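Researcher: Here's the sequence for the chain we discussed earlier.
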Amino acid sequence: MREIKVGDLAFLPANVTLLRHSDHRSGFCRTRVPRHVLVLETMTNPDYYTILYDGDKWSAYKKDIYPIVEREVINNDS
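Model: Thanks. This is the structure I predict for it:
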C-alpha cells in the first residue's frame, strides 16, 4: 500500500470516529458517509493523521485512512 503524505487526498470510510483536539473545542464525531479528505499532518502522533474534514482539523487513526491510488486507464477504441 502507498504511503500517505502531507497534502495527499485520502479516502475516509463511513463509521470512522474522528477526534478533535484544539484550544477552542474538543470532541469527537463519527462519519456517516465515505469522503475524500486532505491530510494536513502525519508526524504529530504516530497513530493518527490530522485531516481536514468539514472545514475543521480532526485526528483519525491511521488504520482508518486509505490512500487514493491512481489506476491506468486502457483505451480499447483502436
